[in-house]
Amino acid sequence: MKPLLLIAGPCAIEHRDIVMQTAERLCEVSAQLGMTLYFKSSFDKANRTSASARGIGMDEGLKILQEVKQQFRVPILTDVHESWQCEPVAQVADVLQIPAFLSRQTDLLQAAARTGRIVNVKKGQFMAPWDMRGAIDKIAAVRDGQTDRIWLTERGSSFGYGRLVVDMTSLVEMRRYGCPVIFDATHAVQQPSNAAGVTGGNREMVPYLMRAALAVGVDGLFLEVHPRPEEAISDAANQVRLSDIEHILTQAKQLHELAQSL
Questions:
Q1: Residues 6+ apart with CB under 8 A from 49
Q2: Which of 15, 6, 18, 5 is closest to 226 using CA atoms?
Q3: Domain boundaries, the chain
Q4: DSSP label at 2?
Q5: How many angstroms separate the CA atoms of 155 and 167, rounded?
Q6: CATH class name, domain 5-261
Q7: What is the pTM of this model?
Q8: C-alpha closest to that of 134 among 103, 158, 107, 112
Q9: pLDDT per residue over 75-110, tens digit each?
Protein backbone atom coordinates (compact mmCIF):
# COMPACT_ATOMS: atom_id res chain seq x y z
CA MET A 1 0.00 0.00 0.00
CA LYS A 2 1.08 3.55 -0.70
CA PRO A 3 2.00 5.38 2.53
CA LEU A 4 0.07 8.47 3.53
CA LEU A 5 1.86 11.71 2.79
CA LEU A 6 1.83 13.96 5.86
CA ILE A 7 2.42 17.72 5.89
CA ALA A 8 2.61 18.90 9.49
CA GLY A 9 4.12 21.49 11.80
CA PRO A 10 3.33 24.79 13.55
CA CYS A 11 1.41 27.33 11.48
CA ALA A 12 4.04 30.05 11.95
CA ILE A 13 7.67 29.94 13.00
CA GLU A 14 7.43 31.71 16.34
CA HIS A 15 10.50 30.41 18.17
CA ARG A 16 13.22 27.89 17.41
CA ASP A 17 12.41 25.75 20.46
CA ILE A 18 8.75 25.32 19.47
CA VAL A 19 9.76 24.30 15.95
CA MET A 20 12.39 21.82 17.10
CA GLN A 21 10.14 20.26 19.74
CA THR A 22 7.33 19.81 17.24
CA ALA A 23 9.59 18.47 14.50
CA GLU A 24 11.16 15.89 16.80
CA ARG A 25 7.81 14.49 17.88
CA LEU A 26 6.33 14.51 14.37
CA CYS A 27 9.36 12.65 13.04
CA GLU A 28 9.03 10.02 15.79
CA VAL A 29 5.32 9.42 15.22
CA SER A 30 5.41 9.49 11.42
CA ALA A 31 8.31 7.00 11.40
CA GLN A 32 6.44 4.67 13.75
CA LEU A 33 3.38 4.79 11.51
CA GLY A 34 5.24 4.57 8.20
CA MET A 35 4.09 7.97 6.92
CA THR A 36 6.05 10.23 4.60
CA LEU A 37 6.49 13.47 6.55
CA TYR A 38 7.11 16.92 5.12
CA PHE A 39 7.71 19.36 7.96
CA LYS A 40 5.77 22.60 7.49
CA SER A 41 6.01 25.99 9.12
CA SER A 42 5.72 29.52 7.70
CA PHE A 43 8.29 32.27 8.16
CA ASP A 44 5.70 34.92 7.28
CA LYS A 45 1.92 35.04 7.57
CA ALA A 46 1.34 37.78 5.03
CA ASN A 47 -2.34 37.09 4.35
CA ARG A 48 -3.89 37.98 7.72
CA THR A 49 -7.15 39.91 7.99
CA SER A 50 -5.70 42.34 10.54
CA ALA A 51 -2.18 43.61 11.19
CA SER A 52 -1.41 40.77 13.60
CA ALA A 53 1.91 39.04 14.25
CA ARG A 54 3.34 37.62 11.03
CA GLY A 55 6.20 35.39 12.11
CA ILE A 56 9.94 35.45 12.46
CA GLY A 57 10.83 36.62 8.92
CA MET A 58 12.40 34.89 5.94
CA ASP A 59 16.12 34.99 6.83
CA GLU A 60 15.77 33.70 10.39
CA GLY A 61 12.93 31.37 9.43
CA LEU A 62 14.93 29.66 6.72
CA LYS A 63 17.84 29.16 9.12
CA ILE A 64 15.53 27.35 11.53
CA LEU A 65 13.99 25.24 8.77
CA GLN A 66 17.46 24.33 7.53
CA GLU A 67 18.36 23.19 11.04
CA VAL A 68 15.23 21.01 11.16
CA LYS A 69 16.12 19.53 7.78
CA GLN A 70 19.67 18.69 8.80
CA GLN A 71 19.01 17.46 12.33
CA PHE A 72 15.97 15.30 11.61
CA ARG A 73 16.64 14.48 7.95
CA VAL A 74 13.13 15.48 6.96
CA PRO A 75 12.03 17.37 3.81
CA ILE A 76 10.68 20.89 4.29
CA LEU A 77 7.56 22.66 3.00
CA THR A 78 6.93 26.38 3.46
CA ASP A 79 4.90 29.20 1.93
CA VAL A 80 6.00 31.80 -0.59
CA HIS A 81 4.02 35.02 -1.03
CA GLU A 82 6.00 36.91 -3.65
CA SER A 83 7.79 35.80 -6.80
CA TRP A 84 11.22 36.99 -5.64
CA GLN A 85 11.03 34.72 -2.58
CA CYS A 86 10.89 31.50 -4.59
CA GLU A 87 14.56 31.14 -5.47
CA PRO A 88 16.03 31.73 -1.98
CA VAL A 89 13.31 29.66 -0.31
CA ALA A 90 13.98 26.80 -2.71
CA GLN A 91 17.54 26.62 -1.40
CA VAL A 92 16.06 25.15 1.80
CA ALA A 93 12.53 23.96 1.06
CA ASP A 94 11.77 20.80 -0.89
CA VAL A 95 8.19 21.99 -1.52
CA LEU A 96 7.07 25.57 -2.19
CA GLN A 97 3.51 26.18 -1.07
CA ILE A 98 1.22 28.67 -2.77
CA PRO A 99 -1.23 30.09 -0.19
CA ALA A 100 -4.91 29.73 -0.99
CA PHE A 101 -5.47 33.47 -1.41
CA LEU A 102 -2.68 33.53 -4.03
CA SER A 103 -3.60 30.38 -5.94
CA ARG A 104 -4.47 32.27 -9.15
CA GLN A 105 -1.36 34.49 -9.20
CA THR A 106 0.35 33.53 -12.45
CA ASP A 107 3.75 35.11 -11.76
CA LEU A 108 4.00 33.47 -8.34
CA LEU A 109 2.97 30.04 -9.63
CA GLN A 110 5.47 30.18 -12.46
CA ALA A 111 8.31 31.53 -10.34
CA ALA A 112 7.79 28.60 -7.97
CA ALA A 113 7.70 26.22 -10.91
CA ARG A 114 11.03 27.49 -12.27
CA THR A 115 12.85 26.42 -9.10
CA GLY A 116 12.23 22.78 -9.99
CA ARG A 117 10.82 22.10 -6.54
CA ILE A 118 7.48 20.45 -5.88
CA VAL A 119 4.75 23.10 -5.87
CA ASN A 120 1.82 22.61 -3.50
CA VAL A 121 -1.10 24.80 -4.54
CA LYS A 122 -3.78 25.36 -1.92
CA LYS A 123 -7.18 25.76 -3.54
CA GLY A 124 -8.58 29.22 -2.94
CA GLN A 125 -11.64 29.42 -0.72
CA PHE A 126 -13.28 31.20 -3.65
CA MET A 127 -12.43 28.57 -6.28
CA ALA A 128 -14.23 25.54 -7.64
CA PRO A 129 -12.17 22.33 -7.79
CA TRP A 130 -12.13 22.41 -11.59
CA ASP A 131 -10.58 25.89 -11.46
CA MET A 132 -7.39 24.22 -10.25
CA ARG A 133 -6.81 23.03 -13.78
CA GLY A 134 -5.72 26.59 -14.52
CA ALA A 135 -3.07 26.51 -11.77
CA ILE A 136 -1.76 23.20 -13.08
CA ASP A 137 -1.53 24.57 -16.61
CA LYS A 138 0.33 27.69 -15.48
CA ILE A 139 2.97 25.60 -13.71
CA ALA A 140 3.23 23.09 -16.54
CA ALA A 141 3.72 25.91 -19.05
CA VAL A 142 7.24 26.54 -17.71
CA ARG A 143 8.00 22.85 -17.20
CA ASP A 144 7.60 21.56 -20.75
CA GLY A 145 4.11 20.35 -19.93
CA GLN A 146 5.20 18.21 -16.97
CA THR A 147 2.77 17.94 -14.06
CA ASP A 148 4.44 15.26 -11.95
CA ARG A 149 5.73 17.68 -9.28
CA ILE A 150 2.47 19.46 -8.53
CA TRP A 151 0.33 18.86 -5.46
CA LEU A 152 -3.19 20.20 -4.87
CA THR A 153 -4.58 20.90 -1.40
CA GLU A 154 -8.22 21.32 -0.39
CA ARG A 155 -8.86 23.60 2.60
CA GLY A 156 -12.57 24.38 2.36
CA SER A 157 -14.70 26.96 0.59
CA SER A 158 -16.22 30.22 1.79
CA PHE A 159 -19.81 29.90 2.91
CA GLY A 160 -21.13 33.38 3.53
CA TYR A 161 -19.19 35.39 6.09
CA GLY A 162 -16.95 33.78 8.70
CA ARG A 163 -17.54 30.17 7.73
CA LEU A 164 -15.89 27.50 5.61
CA VAL A 165 -17.42 24.26 4.38
CA VAL A 166 -15.77 21.29 2.72
CA ASP A 167 -17.30 19.74 -0.37
CA MET A 168 -15.84 16.24 -0.27
CA THR A 169 -16.61 15.74 -3.96
CA SER A 170 -13.90 18.32 -4.70
CA LEU A 171 -11.34 15.72 -3.63
CA VAL A 172 -12.65 13.37 -6.30
CA GLU A 173 -12.72 16.14 -8.92
CA MET A 174 -9.14 17.24 -8.30
CA ARG A 175 -7.73 13.71 -8.30
CA ARG A 176 -8.89 13.41 -11.91
CA TYR A 177 -6.05 15.74 -12.92
CA GLY A 178 -3.45 13.14 -11.96
CA CYS A 179 -1.77 15.20 -9.21
CA PRO A 180 -1.58 14.11 -5.58
CA VAL A 181 -4.46 15.61 -3.60
CA ILE A 182 -4.00 16.60 0.04
CA PHE A 183 -6.67 17.48 2.59
CA ASP A 184 -5.94 20.33 4.98
CA ALA A 185 -7.96 19.34 8.02
CA THR A 186 -6.91 22.23 10.24
CA HIS A 187 -7.59 25.17 7.92
CA ALA A 188 -10.89 23.54 6.98
CA VAL A 189 -12.20 24.26 10.49
CA GLN A 190 -11.28 27.95 10.41
CA GLN A 191 -13.89 30.61 11.05
CA PRO A 192 -12.41 33.56 9.16
CA SER A 193 -12.53 36.97 10.84
CA ASN A 194 -15.21 35.89 13.29
CA ALA A 195 -13.59 37.51 16.34
CA ALA A 196 -13.02 41.22 15.73
CA GLY A 197 -10.88 40.63 12.69
CA VAL A 198 -9.09 37.57 14.09
CA THR A 199 -9.67 34.14 12.59
CA GLY A 200 -11.32 31.63 14.90
CA GLY A 201 -11.90 27.93 14.49
CA ASN A 202 -12.78 24.67 16.18
CA ARG A 203 -10.00 22.09 16.49
CA GLU A 204 -12.47 19.55 17.90
CA MET A 205 -13.84 19.12 14.38
CA VAL A 206 -10.44 18.32 12.81
CA PRO A 207 -10.58 14.52 13.35
CA TYR A 208 -14.09 14.28 11.92
CA LEU A 209 -13.28 16.11 8.68
CA MET A 210 -10.00 14.20 8.43
CA ARG A 211 -11.84 10.88 8.65
CA ALA A 212 -14.33 11.92 5.98
CA ALA A 213 -11.60 12.97 3.56
CA LEU A 214 -9.60 9.80 4.12
CA ALA A 215 -12.72 7.73 3.49
CA VAL A 216 -13.29 9.54 0.18
CA GLY A 217 -9.62 8.98 -0.70
CA VAL A 218 -6.71 11.39 -0.59
CA ASP A 219 -2.97 11.08 -1.07
CA GLY A 220 -1.98 13.23 1.86
CA LEU A 221 -3.03 15.00 5.00
CA PHE A 222 -2.14 18.54 6.12
CA LEU A 223 -2.21 19.28 9.85
CA GLU A 224 -0.92 22.31 11.70
CA VAL A 225 0.40 21.19 15.08
CA HIS A 226 1.58 23.17 18.10
CA PRO A 227 2.65 22.21 21.64
CA ARG A 228 0.37 24.91 23.12
CA PRO A 229 -2.07 26.02 20.40
CA GLU A 230 -3.85 28.59 22.56
CA GLU A 231 -0.56 30.54 22.75
CA ALA A 232 0.14 30.43 19.00
CA ILE A 233 0.43 33.71 17.10
CA SER A 234 -1.56 32.31 14.19
CA ASP A 235 -4.49 29.87 13.91
CA ALA A 236 -4.60 29.34 17.66
CA ALA A 237 -8.16 28.01 17.53
CA ASN A 238 -7.65 25.28 14.97
CA GLN A 239 -4.11 23.91 15.36
CA VAL A 240 -3.91 20.36 16.72
CA ARG A 241 -2.24 19.81 20.10
CA LEU A 242 1.10 18.07 19.78
CA SER A 243 0.11 15.76 22.64
CA ASP A 244 -2.84 14.49 20.56
CA ILE A 245 -0.95 13.87 17.32
CA GLU A 246 -0.13 10.19 17.81
CA HIS A 247 -3.79 9.29 18.41
CA ILE A 248 -4.98 11.35 15.44
CA LEU A 249 -2.37 9.96 13.05
CA THR A 250 -2.98 6.37 14.17
CA GLN A 251 -6.61 6.82 13.13
CA ALA A 252 -5.48 8.41 9.87
CA LYS A 253 -3.27 5.46 9.00
CA GLN A 254 -6.03 2.95 9.68
CA LEU A 255 -8.54 4.84 7.54
CA HIS A 256 -6.05 5.41 4.72
CA GLU A 257 -5.26 1.70 4.55
CA LEU A 258 -8.93 0.78 4.67
CA ALA A 259 -9.77 3.21 1.84
CA GLN A 260 -7.00 1.75 -0.34
CA SER A 261 -8.31 -1.76 0.21
CA LEU A 262 -11.84 -0.98 -0.98
A1: 192, 193, 197, 198, 199
A2: 18
A3: 5-261
A4: P
A5: 10
A6: alpha beta
A7: 0.94
A8: 103
A9: 999 999 999 999 999 999 999 999 999 999 999 999
